Amino acid sequence: MKRIPSLRAYLDALDDLGDLRILRHEVDPELELGATVRRAYETRAPAPLFERVRGAAPGFRVLGAPAALSSRADQPFARLALSLGLPPGSTPRDIMGVLSAAHDRPRIPPREVARADAPCKENVLLDDAVDLGRFPAPLLHDGDGGRYFNTWGTVVAATPDGSWTNWAVARAMVLDRRRMTGAVVPTQHLGMIHRQWAERGQPMPFALAQGCEPGVPIVSGMPFPAGVDEADVLGGLFGEPVDVVRCETVPLSVPATAEIVVEGHLSHEETAPEGPMGEYAGYLSGAPRPQPVYRVTAITHRNDPILPVVVAGQPVDEDHTVSALTAAAECLRVLRAADLPVEMAWVPLETAGHWCVVTVRADWRQRYGSDPRELTRRIAELVLATRFGAWMARIIVVDDDVDATDLGEVVWAFATRGHPRDGLLVFDAMPLLPLMVCYTAAERMAAEGPKLAHNCLLPAPGPDRPRRCSFEHNYPAEIRRRVLEREVTGRRPAAG
């Protein structure tokens, strides 16, 4: 795998693919920037790089859609593939293979470099020079609770004893020139570490690294167990340590090539209203809720820094490309570890994480038994028990003649193979995310509700098993060969 060591090198790679659009006209950070990025998602346009943002200091730039689907129809996952050091034409299976392997690779701790060798130290702002207003934090959606400075950056935090340093992607909204607030969920790793500091009666030191090398936000969103340092995982993924540098005012280290680093402390006492915000399910979600306040003590940045932004909403954006592939990879890893006859697991991007499709191998009856409902139940139990299970409302189990990554095939199989009553398995009182609008207000408030599994497995081979009518499955290989050859050459294929 070929590691891309900085955001700027990543932009060069996108530019080489024709997947970067440089916008030199002035853009308003209040809604216009967000609307432009949303339009780029929905039309599969190149990633927009805004060079002039109204109100920002000269030279400050914004990158939209950093890991969305590519504008290259032949390489739809190019941005995610490049972020993980893979060729731009890599398939979802290729990417999932890397994500799954990251759990088991030997880990390599980061390498600390001198401040003079760290691009993120080109400008150091302390004391009265600290001002979040210098940066083009945008109002991304009509209805957002404020301007969000962080939608794709990595929050670095460590336990009080220093035994665990966590990297996490967590949204953060600007309050004023030296304060932010953001979602700190108690059950997530950032919330766990914050609680440890609060139990000591102390604020939590933090660093927010924006515009890191592209592998950093990917790994920061993966579902590793508590106690695992994502920096070590990223080093193991590429076979070399990640360069980090010590912060100016807190005892933490950040990726040395980051574009912008914000340092300070997350209060254990002070809160401020945060949200609502346009979110991954495709809706403006939530009401303002009190969240801990980030107090900023230092900012460092590169010359002409770049702030990456994600404008979450209706699929497909980074909340779906990155989360869907990491969720699918985790589900596949768990199912295979349980020795189930699973061929593929996939979270269709268009479902905003609400579906998980699992395909099982043709010999599953010989290996597992003949009860399709029991196999479906076991698969669903394991998927729903993963960290991503709370995102999902439906688990769909189908035979492996269906390509789980092809939404058209999945919808066809779901519609034609799942019995409307007997194919359903109901799991009551399951954890769910409050952002899932398919649940009632009471269920969202309790973060608990029903989930469904759909047994869409065909009958065993025999007279009751329907025969699939498609080019790939209905016609002999020799007929297919002749048709394909004529399609390419436009001539009658040679005999034999």
TrEMBL record:
Reaction(s) catalysed by this chain, per the record, are: pyrrole-2-carboxylate + H(+) = 1H-pyrrole + CO2; pyrrole-2-carboxylate + H2O = 1H-pyrrole + hydrogencarbonate
Write out the GO MF terms: lyase activity
Entry EC no(s): 4.1.1.93
- Lineage, please? Bacteria, Bacillati, Actinomycetota, Actinomycetes, Kitasatosporales
Q: Does the keyword field hold Flavoprotein?
A: yes
The UniProt keywords, alphabetically, are: Aromatic hydrocarbons catabolism, Decarboxylase, Flavoprotein, FMN, Lyase, Manganese, Metal-binding, Potassium
Q: Which NCBIfam families match?
A: UbiD family decarboxylase
This chain belongs to which protein, by name?
Pyrrole-2-carboxylic acid decarboxylase
Q: State how it assembles.
A: Homodimer.
- Top enzyme class, one word, equals lyase
Q: Which InterPro entries match?
A: FDC-like, UbiD, UbiD-like_C, UbiD-like_N, UbiD_Rift_dom
Species name: Streptomyces pathocidini
